[in-house]
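Hello, quick one for you while I still have it in my head. I'm working through a protein record and want to make sense of it properly. Would you mind checking whether the tokens look sensible for this chain? I owe you a coffee for this, so here goes:
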Amino acid sequence: MRIDTIYRYMLLMLLVVASTETLSADSWLDKVKSGYKEVENKITTEFSLDDKTEELALAKPLPLDVPANWHYSYFNEPIFNSQMVILEDGVQHRKTIVLVHGLGELGMKDWFNLIPKLAEQYHVIAVDLPGFGLSGVPQGRYTPTNYAKVLNAVLNQYVDSPITLVGHSMGGAISLRFASMYPNSVDKLVLIDVAGVLEKTAFVKHISELPIDESLVPNMLKKTIAQVNDFGSSLVELGTLHDPASDFLHGNDVTWNALLSNSPNINAALSLVEEDFNSAVRNLTVDTSIIWGAKDTVAPIRTAKVLSANIESARLVIIENASHVPMKSHPQEFMVELQHALASKTVKESIVEKGKTDKSQGDLVCDNKANMTYSGNFDAIILNQCTNIKLKEVTATSLEANDSLVEVENLLLVSHRIALKADESVIRITNGVIKGDKAISLSGSRLDLAGVEIIGGEYTIYSDKHSQVVFSICKSESQQFSGLLHGVYELTETTLDELLYSSK
């Protein structure tokens, strides 16, 4: 097996383990090794196929030791043809709230500490999705789209009015997809530490980074950590871009079912990172609240910021010191924020383009520096051999990076010429607008863009030397191509516009 393929599956096992359990360092590593070995064995070992499939993937027995007011039932869902388990409480109430869990064997149990409080005001429905918890484990692809269809079947049976939909992690991605597919069925949407919205390369890069709190790291080490994380990111980009084994797996239903029929976590994780949410995010009109743990090492807080900036009606709340499962680690604080989200109408805060009305600070020139942060309104920004540079809330006429490592958040570049120029540099941009006659010019560089709009007169991006661009929830506008961008593109002596136009 190719080393980049192995590396990718190792990272996906990190996703599965990190999403579902809190372990000591040693047991965490053992779990990753064990899970990775399982995946490798399945991919490299001969397997036989049985054409016979069960008519119905049977669910497990219902639990007996539950509160008297909790009502369990089986539901025969039509998408995977399996039995799933539904929990209800507060059935006397008119308004319904539906809870959708993330990865892990616990399924709906992630919500158990919240259900009694919610049932005081709501008809609460919690589900074990097919493959998880007490539900059956059917064959098929556990994609957010398929799960959204499952939820729709459940609601048609159990509910007769629009619901409040609450989803965590993978369940947040499913809830986002459901709200975009069935907007009239959702009155309010609450997304919690959503996994998988970023393009798969950007998402997997995040979970491969060293989980270090920079506030606790000596300044002299920050540059080294940034360089190590960048090296890891380059390996992930290589593995996800050139992975024929993964392409074959995703293109062959028989192989998919044979390898993953008994691995629902891996099935769901692989399906999740392949789904494109760009259109769902940008066209969503449902009243939306986003709750996130500030120290989430599974779903990057970058995702929360992209969702907040690009969903028409969205409110973002960040719970300090919470990680990926805030309803368990910070239950009281989480419940306060959830109840606020449920009770109030989301009002979109006006996005003030920072620095637009401020006086320009002139040119910003950084030569051979590290660990610097800049904000404000500038004419030109020029970075030469600078590492771990952060630009936050920045407006400028142009940005030029030479042999530099840069992270940007909330960027506005407007130029009559080249707005962004990168030579042998790595730049990550979260939310922004880049507008120019020749919007972006690259040479041997890597861009990671999320929530970014690129507007080009002559072209949006050109590279004279092999460069790579990762797009997550982005959009592009030029004479040759206008549309949404979500994927990874390699450019050598060509423009992105020509590449997109030729592939139409």
